Structure formats: structure tokens, C-alpha cells
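Posting for a labmate who doesn't have an account.
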Amino acid sequence: MKKIILTTVLALSAVLLVHGELKPGDDAKTFKLKNVDGTSVSLSDYNDQKGVILVFTCNPCPFAKAYEQRIIKLHNTYADKGYPVVAINPNDVDISPDDSMELMKARSDEKDYPFPYLKDETQEVYKGYGATKTPHIYLLENNGGNFKVAYVGAIDDNAMEEASVSSKYVESAIAALESGSKPKPKTTKAVGCTIKTKS
């Protein structure tokens, strides 16, 4: 009986390690993914920036759609201040056909995304970060080319009604970094659709 319990605990621990979410203070995971324009984009491409607003998002999720314009606004507001948006679509195409590269490009063109929209085809990147929802935000701070996680969670406190937002978590987190302090809160609960994972 003890052996069964121990085996179960070890198995659960392994799952948590594989899918454990990066926490503020952790080193960001590097990546090199294909963009909708056919180029490859790496985290190291942003070594000259103060940080990166990394967004795991997708095409069809109602929450992703509700946040779409806010994500565009974040880039337009903060890219020139050293915090550009990089969007990654983590969904498996077999489960979510609307998240094919072709339809990602169509969405990017239709909405005139001012940031790269990358495909996590192997799903290794989202698992490395521990993202669970679309959208799911990881605000990364650049420390001399070593990116660290500064904030994890939601963009703000009202997914469906931008007019009713009272706390802009990502904007507050960037303001904290700019003032030399740590974001408060450092984490919030990401609100969105579950990531569609290969079985």
C-alpha cells in the first residue's frame, strides 16, 4: 500500500514539474518560433528591450477575442517604452482547427496586429512556462539579456467588460518595474479558455 501511495505521489510530482507554472523571479524560458509572416522570432531578439509582454493567446476563444484590442493597446502604449508584446498561440491544430497558421495569419492581418503572432507547434514553450489559459500573461524583465518573470496572470480584472476594469495588472506591473520596485500583485489568476493540448 505504501509503495502504491509513494508511486502516486512521485507521478503527481513529475506532472507538476513538467507543467509547473513559472513564478515571478524565475528565469524565462527561451524560444524560437515561427511568426505568421514566415520569419522566426526568438526571445533573444529582444535583448535590447527592457522587457517583453509575453501573451499566450489564440483565435477562437471568447476571452482572447475580448482582450484582443487591449493586447494591441498594450503594445502600442508600451513598445516604445521598452516593453513590446509577443503573442504565442499554443493550441493544437488537430483539436482547434481555427488555430492553424493560415488562420492565425488571417486574424493578424484582419486586426492589424502590430506585434508578432507565433505558433507553438510542439507545445513545448507553453508547457515550459506553465501557461494554462488563453490569454495568459507573462511579463518578462530583461536583466542584461537574462529575462526573468516579473508578473504572471491576467491583463486586468474584467475579462469581458473593458469599461468596467478597475485594476490594470499589466500596466501596474510595468509601472512598478519602471520605478525600480516589484509588481504588486506579482501574480493573479489568468481568466480564459483552456489550452488545447495534444493527447
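Reply:
Got it, the C-alpha cells are right above this. The chain has one domain: 21-194.
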